[in-house]
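Allow me, if you will, to draw on your knowledge of protein folds for a short while. I have a record of one protein: its chain in single-letter code and its fold written as discrete structure tokens. I should value your view on which stretches of the chain appear to form regular backbone elements. Thank you for your consideration; the sequence and its tokens are set out here:
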Amino acid sequence: MSVELLGVIVLGLGYFTLLLGAGLAVERGLIPVRVTRHPLVYTLALGLYASAWAIYGSVELAAEAGFGYLAYYLGAAGVFLLAPVLLVPVQRITRTYQLASLADLFAFRFRSRWVGSLVTLLSLVAVLPLLGIQVKTLSEAAFHLTHSRYSEVATFVFCAFVTLGAILFGARHRHQQRHDTLLSVIALESLIKLAALLALGAIALWGVFNGPQDLQQWLDGPGAAAQAATPKLDPAQWRTLLLLFFAAALLMPHLFQLTFAESLSRQALLQASWTLPLFLLLMALPVPLIWWAAQAQHGEIPITAYAAFLLSTNPWVGALAFLAGLAAASGTMMMMAIALSGMVLNHVVLVARPPEARSNLYGWLLWLRRALMVGVVAGGWLFAEGVSRQHSLTDLGLAAFVGIAQCLPGLLALLYWPGANRNGMVAGLAGGTLVWLWGLWLPLLLATPLPRLPFLDLMPADAPSWYTTTLISLSVNIVLLIVMSLFTRTSDGEHSAAEACSVDAVIRSKRLPLEAATAGDFTQHLAGALGDEAAGREVTRALKALNLTHDERRPYALRRLRDRIQANLSGLMGPSVARDIVDRYLPYRHDETPGTDDIHFVESRLEAYRSRLTGLARELDGLRRHHRQTLAHLPVGLCVLGDDGEITLWNQALAELSGIPGDSVVGSRRDSLPAPWPALLAGVLDAPHTPLYKQPARLHGRECFLTLQQATLSGLDSRGGSVILVEDHTEMKWLEEELVHAARLASIGQLAAGVAHEIGNPITGISSLAQNLRFDTSDPALLETADHIQELTQRVTRIVNALVGFAHGGRQALPAPSEAVALKAIGDDALHLIHLARSGEDVGFVNASPGHVVVKGDAQRLTQVMVNLLGNARDACKVGGEVIIEAGEQGEYAWWRVTDDGEGIAPSVKDHLFEPFTTTKPPGEGTGLGLSVAYQIINEHQGRIECASPPSGRSRGTAITLWLPLYPQDDRPLHGQDTDC
């Protein structure tokens, strides 16, 4: 082995060490994420399109077709210039359904594992010549640099390091992820080859020529004859060549994965629509300079592809040309190994041998993929050693590009023709592939000529074989695709997938129940296919992405979980295997009720794509949103149910009324709602007539009354179901009870007026007899009794007058209370009257009111209030209980409190304590009017009344506190008011 060849190997190993160091720096976070995920890094990575064919094959094409070599760069630039209408829709599909390859996309759209397998095999066969170019250029570049017959040894070493790099950067981890390290390494390679090629162009322009002026003089002088002798492409051939490179930039497996599976974002892809053409322009500029400089120095060049090695005898110029080719070839081979290994694994290996329940499924898949990477690189090396040596780079490259172009009609149909089906796709792809194999690929392998292709007589006699094969194969492909699709049946699955892949797709998912009842059941079901570990990890991953829990039961959420798991498995095993696993282990429950469109899912998709709608579609979506907002903000509760009982709408008013957020209930069954809603909704749905008025329901800890109305959705444009309106008529119910109560009070008032009139006459007689008794006896005891009778008759008279005033519907015509009243004296009087009742003697009474507290009021009426309060306190106490009267001053008011140690007052009664007819006593023992009258009297005294049960600092009992205005200090009498007044 020569010293020069050893130096080339060292140069190559140094280059691979640089890549490894850059990858480790990215993985360990030494390079900031904002750098590794910058759109410029993504653009440089897309520069992978410029393979070794761009370094050497473009020079060869420039020698054979002049400026026709620009078709290689313009075709790729055209793909990215059409990014908004071509690349963005494909990116949307691949990101939504986790499709990593062209075979994944075709298998998803045409719902056939055989379509995916066919596309994989075609891609593998079509890419072999391009892989051979990478290996061939490495070997021949090393030979031109060293002139060593052992250059194949260096190529083998480089292929081994490429394989190792593919495994390290593309199959190092057990689970799928976007490869930031891979993207950064490919971007670095693109930067190196761009810098090397520009440096070669600069050497040609300023090293061989003395600048642009000297170059122009050579082109006008000695070089004019050479340029005139360069063949020119026919315009039709130029357009065909442009189409081939357009298809290659879009459909080559390594470029497809890098463009879509490794993409940063939609915005990064749109930015690449102008930055990548700029990169390709820079790559294209040095090509003619290198060729012209080589012509100027050597005239006739036997191997035009390696003209860069003839620019100078300086070994560093040759090393620069070799480094540019090494960077281009290694990156392309590495990405091809990653992309093709995934395609073969998902669409050949796993289709032939589906995964079983393994304890280490991820490890098994990982080692399979690594083995396939080794096989892909080894296949490229064998093809280069066995076939590529006898053919030019142009022949090899065009054979690969024509082969991969057979997928272009299918891709365009996938995006823009929903009527295409798998029969047309398979027929068209098979027909075009057979023509391509016969016209271009088999001639690479066989030395003997093959029979002529059909329709060849229709082509120009001097047309090159790549041109005729391209036209015939694509024509056969397109015709078979259209004819078979028009005259064969398209399955329901294909219709659904066509809607998903359409540019303006709105997927109408069906609302079907699953066999699994909860999200937790998914793990158990999937374990039969994936094993316990992998099933648990995939379910947890999907739950986390959807922000759901293992206890989720809503049918809508379970359907979304199933779709997410299928998408995740699609990225791991391909859409065909993923669909088979999900359909088998997470099946739908097919009841007699047909599945209807999942409106909630359709609306969520419309919301996601709202910003992309234009024209009439945008106006219709605005109208839809207006109607949706109208329903959501109705002041009346609104619920929409499907025929299967699934809730599709739960507006804000109903959420506030029920306390159940709409987001947590939409998509669930009505029988899974908390009480009392299942019974209420079932009642209105089953009722022969609606509305159902004032149905009792306990909500938020209180009794409510709801009115429910129901309407059935029917008609040609309807998806079925029912609409239920729920109105809270609790206040109306209370108002009705208030009206009934008022009517009862009016009747009692009329009765009270009659009773007061009938009582008034006897009371007047009793009062007169008591007064006469003063003159008929001198017995002190009798006189005291007469005084008491007189006081009580006055009190009865006041009560009767109050009843008469109440019956007349207004306040009684009494003067405003203005007397000075000592609270202690009023308390003593009330206690005296309580003791006259001869009941409650087993309860102790204590009047602890100070004598100096004097209020402004009416003594008789305040006595009436205190008697009522003391009577209630006595009735509340048990045997041996105690009732205490206290008083004090606070500001301009006096407080007067009656406290007992009874059981207290229930909270439900406390809120209505001072309303008429409110009582806790058994029927016949209380009227419920005492506290109501007391409340009215205290209001007329410009005071207030408060209730605490239990009082502060006690565990039981009740305290009623009266607040009354103090009598002005200057007007107070020197002593407490006399009790006989």
